[in-house]
Amino acid sequence: MRILMACAAFPPFIDGGGPISAMIVAKLLRAAGHDLTVVNVSGEDRHEVFDGVPVHRLRSLNIDWNYRLPRPGWKKAIWHALENFNPRAFFIMRREIKRLRPDIVLTDSIENINVATWAAAKSCGLPVAHILRSTFLLCWKGSMWRGSDNCGRACSSCQVTSYGKKLNSRFVDAVIGETDFIIGRHTEHGYFPNASTHAIPGAIASVPGALPRTASAERPLRVGFIGVHDPVKGLDTLAAAAHRLSGQPVEFLIAGTGQSDYAKALPERFPAQNTRFLGWTKPEDFLPQIDVLAVPSLFREPFGRVVIEAFAYGVPVVGARSGGIPETIQPGVNGALFKPGDDAALAEQLSAFASDRALVATLSAGALAAATRYAPERIAAAYGAVFEGLVGKSTESALPQAREARL
After folding, report:
1. How many domains, the chain?
2. Which residues, in sequence order, are CB contacts of 93 under 8 Å at separation 6+?
C-alpha cells in the first residue's frame, strides 16, 4: 500500500517523544512492506532518505515552523490562528498528494503540517487516518494543564481557539490513539464525528537476552526514574516517598535533565544518602541498572512510552493512575498503581518490593510477557488492518456510523 505520512515533526528534529514515535511508526510500516513517504515541515525544502525512510522536508507552511523557539506574542497568535485552517497548507499538501499518489493519507500529530491536510486529502478522494499524540487539537498548549493541575475539559478559550481544528476533524475516517484515554479526550468533545476509533499502542522491540530479573536482599532495592525533570512528572511525589522510606533498604536512581530552576534544585528534595542523579542517560543504559521503575506523573500522559520500554527489559513499573498509564500496567502482574500525588501510597508500594524480593522476580516475568503485546510486527499488522478497511471506501458516500477496534 502506498502511504503519505504527514508529520508534525520528524527526526533529526526532536522536541520530545512525538518525532521519535513517528519514526517508529514509519519504519515499522515500511518493514511490513508498505511504500511509505514522510512529508513534514523544517527550515528548508529538500528530499532525503533519513534512516531508511524517504522524507520530503517542506519550508514552513505557517508563519514559522519551530514553535519551540522564543517568539513575540503577535507571532504566536498568528501561528495558532492559522493552525485552525491554513489555505497555503491546503494547496501545498494537495500538491504533495497528487505528486505521490498515495492510497491513503496518514497524519501523525498535526501541528505545522496543518488540519488543512485532511481537507486536501478529501478533495483528492483519499481516505484519512490520524494518530493522536497529544491534546493539541483541544488545547493550544497541547497539554490540557493549567497552573498546577490537569484540566477536566477544554476551557472556553481553548474551545474557541480550536474551533477550526474540530471542524476539520470531520474529514478523518479513522483516528488512532495509543490508549483509549487519549481517544476519549477528543471524542467526548465532539471531535472526529465520522471516524472509526482504534486503540493501537506504541511498539517496542524485544531486548536480546532479557530475562526475568532478581533483586538480591543483600543490597538495597534500586528504584529508578527517567525523564524530564519537571513538576508535572511527579518528582515531588517520588521525593516525598523517598523520605518516607528512610531507613529501609531502598536507593533511588534519577536519570534525565531539565533546564528550569526546579530541575536545578531537585537534588535537594531527595534524601542525599540514598539518591543518585545520573543526568541524561539512554534508556538502554539505565533500565538494566534498576529493579523497579517509578512513573509518578501528575500530568495525564497520553500513553507513557517509558512503561513499555521498562517492560522490554523485564522491569516492573509502579505508576500513577494518570491518563493512559493504567491501560498499560496490570497490578500484581507487571507492576502496581497508585493515586497521582499520593506519596504515602507510592512509598507503600515500593516498601512491598523492598521487603519481598520474590515479588520483583514475579512481576519482572510479567513485564517481559507484557512486552510481547507491543512487538513491532503486531503493531504494524494492527495499522495495516485499519488501512485495509479504509482503502477503496468511497469518500463520496455517506460515512457509516463510527466503528471501534481495539488491539
Report:
1. 2
2. 6, 39, 61, 113, 114, 116, 117, 120, 121
Would the CA dihedral through 90, 91, 92, 98 be positive or negative?
Answer: positive
Kindly tell me the burial class for residue 299, based on how many C-beta atoms sit within 10 Å of its own C-beta (0-12, 13-18, 19 or more).
Answer: buried
Is residue 282 assigned to a domain? yes
Q: How far apart are CA 390 and CA 395, in angstroms?
A: 10
Same domain, 369 and 275: yes
**Rounded distance between C-alpha atoms, residue 279 and residue 292, angstroms:** 18
238 and 347 belong to one structural domain: yes
What are the CA-CA distances from residue 71 to residues 54, 78, 370 (Å)? 31, 11, 44
Range of the domain at 348: 221-374
Distance CA 21, CA 18 (A): 5
Query: What number of other Cβ atoms are within 10 A of residue 328's Cβ?
Result: 26
Confidence label for 16 from pLDDT (cuts 50, 70 and 90): low
What is this structure's pTM? 0.91
From the list 94, 118, 129, the residue with the least C-alpha distance to 166 is: 118
Question: CB burial class (10 A; 0-12, 13-18, 19+) of residue 199?
Answer: buried
Q: Across all residues in the chain, what is the average pLDDT?
A: 92
How many residues belong to the chain?
A: 407
Report pLDDT for 392.
67
Same domain assignment for residues 248 and 179? no
pLDDT for residue 70: 77
pLDDT of residue 77: 87
Q: Does residue 344 form part of some domain? A: yes
- Which distant-in-sequence residues (6+ apart) come within 8 Å of 178 by Cβ? 132, 133, 199, 200, 201, 202, 302, 303, 324
Q: What is the CA radius of gyration of the chain?
A: 22
Sign of the CA dihedral running 326, 331, 335, 340: positive
Residue 15, judged by CB atoms within 10 A of its CB (0-12, 13-18, 19+), counts as exposed
Cell for 40? 513534514
Do 17 and 126 fall within a single domain?
A: yes
pLDDT in tens, 346-355: 999 999 999 9
Q: Which of 257, 269, 231, 259 is nearest to 149 (CA)?
A: 231
Paired residues of 150 in beta bridges: 145
pLDDT at 397 over 60: no
Q: What is the CATH number of the domain that holds 263?
A: 3.40.50.2000
Find the mean pLDDT for residues 380-402. Answer: 71
| pLDDT of amino acid 8 | 85
